[in-house]
TrEMBL record:
It is a multi-pass membrane protein. GO terms for cellular component: membrane. This is DHA1 family tetracycline resistance protein-like MFS transporter. Belongs to the major facilitator superfamily. TCR/Tet family. Resistance to tetracycline by an active tetracycline efflux. This is an energy-dependent process that decreases the accumulation of the antibiotic in whole cells. This protein functions as a metal-tetracycline/H(+) antiporter. PROSITE patterns: MFS, SUGAR_TRANSPORT_1. The keyword Transport applies. It comes from Variovorax guangxiensis. Coiled coil: none annotated. InterPro entries: MFS, MFS_dom, MFS_trans_sf, Sugar_transporter_CS, Tet-R_TetA/multi-R_MdtG-like. Keywords: Membrane, Transmembrane, Transmembrane helix, Transport.
Length: 421
């Protein structure tokens, strides 16, 4: 561990910065969500159909560019250190938000969105930083705190962005730019380096910095490869929310925008509680394997109940169970970091982030497509809850893989097979 991070006070300050960095990233992107469609519609000449097309293109391009760039940033952080990559990402996002605020055409706004996908891939480096500065038994708790940052951003970002966009559709972009620039300045003075020179990769390896090469790197670690599949399935299942939640709630319960907003806010609050208060003590008490299986099991049950729910009360009771799925991600991340050398944490985290990006490409099509099919006139049965059943099925597969890959005998074999840099 870097000498500068030996002191607990300095280490806590560094982790606080990582939390704030992730929080501001999610908050900034949450800020622009309510106003982005209106800005796109304005630039499209007021055509809602054209705006919908461009929004779909924006979403796919954003996930695709993250898929490509996540392993690159991870490999760069392994070679040159975590601090410069994180700071460059903060600065790049700040400049890019200004660029999007000034964009006067859809192609220019699209370019800005692509660039934001490049720099928002910094979550890869943030995860590697956590692995550098925390003991293995504390990593699940730290990843849970990062998950809480996502929840806070989910609650505050869209609410604040909606208010700002009422004033001007471009105002959220300026506000997000200010936040990320403040974060860059804060990090410049506070964030220490977590990866000393003697623990870095000797060279920048392009074979592992491209997304295909980074995914192939996972195969060198059989234990990691199985856990990576679990992480992919967990993230894929969670895309059921942005893909069909609004449409499903309107179709099933006739909820309008204000009701959906409050419910999503409640989900965000539950996410903060689980990530910040429950994951750390739960993993410490029962272990990472139990936490992983518990989270997956709650997700299966919660999504299944959402799928069959025909009353608001039943659906609302399922949401806390769905939120407990948050145990799975940090536990799986912590198990992965135990299998990998410090010099390869960035590349492994980059590969995992690329998998999450693939989920962002595949998930909306799978869930929105199944929802449209099963409420259509040609469907063999009217089943609006089909996307939630599919999400539960993904988690069932993930639970089986996790059960097999995290058995004590298999885990011990995986540790002895870990390859040095």
């Amino acid at each position: 561990m870097s000498p500068t991070l030996q002191a607990p006070r300095v280490r806590r300050a560094a982790l606080a910065f990582i939390f704030i960095t992730v929080l501001i990233d999610f908050l900034a992107f949450g800020l622009i969500l309510p106003g982005l469609p209106h800005l796109v519609e304005r630039l499209a000449g007021g055509s809602a159909a054209t705006a919908a097309y461009w929004i779909a293109v924006f979403g796919t391009a954003f996930a695709a560019i993250q898929f490509v760039c996540s392993p690159v940033l991870g490999a760069l952080s392994d070679r040159f250190g975590r601090r410069p990559v994180i700071l460059l990402s903060c600065l790049g996002l700040a400049v890019d938000f200004v660029f999007m605020a000034l964009a006067d055409s859809l192609p220019w706004l699209f370019i800005g969105r692509v660039v934001s996908g490049v720099f928002s891939a910094s979550l890869t480096t943030a995860n590697a930083y956590i692995a550098d500065v925390t003991a293995p038994e504390e990593r699940a708790r730290s990843y849970g705190i990062v998950g809480a940052a996502f929840g806070v951003g989910l609650v505050l970002g869209p609410v604040l962005g909606g208010q700002l966009s009422h004033v001007d559709a471009r105002l959220p972009f300026w506000f997000a730019a200010g936040l990320t620039m403040l974060n860059f300045c804060y990090g410049w003075f506070v964030l220490p380096e977590s990866l000393p020179p003697e623990r870095r990769s000797l060279k920048f390896d392009w074979s592992h910095a491209n997304p295909v090469g980074s995914l192939m790197l996972l195969k060198r670690y059989p234990q990691v490869f199985g856990l990576a599949a679990v992480i992919f399935l967990v993230n894929l299942a969670q895309y059921v929310y942005p893909s069909v939640f609004v449409l499903f709630a309107d179709y099933r319960f006739q909820w309008k925008e204000d009701t959906v907003g409050w419910v999503l806010g409640l989900v965000g609050v539950l996410s903060v509680v689980v990530n910040a208060l429950l994951i750390g003590p739960g993993v410490k008490r029962f272990g990472e394997r139990a936490a992983l299986l518990f989270g997956l099991g709650c997700g299966v049950l919660g999504f299944a109940i959402c799928g069959v729910a025909d009353a608001v009360a039943v659906f609302m009771l399922a949401l806390p169970l769905c939120t407990l799925l948050a145990f799975a991600g940090p536990a799986a991340q912590a198990l992965v970091t135990r299998q990998v050398d410090a010099a390869q944490q960035g590349r492994i985290q980059g590969a995992l982030t690329s998998l999450v990006s693939v989920a962002g490409i595949v998930g909306p099509a799978a869930f929105a497509g199944s929802f449209g099919y099963f409420i259509g006139v040609d469907a063999p049965v009217q089943l609006p809850g089909a996307p939630f059943f599919i999400a539960a099925l993904f988690l069932c597969v993930g639970m089986r893989v996790a059960w097999r890959r995290t058995r004590p005998a298999v885990a011990a074999a995986g540790e002895t097979a870990t390859e040095p840099t």
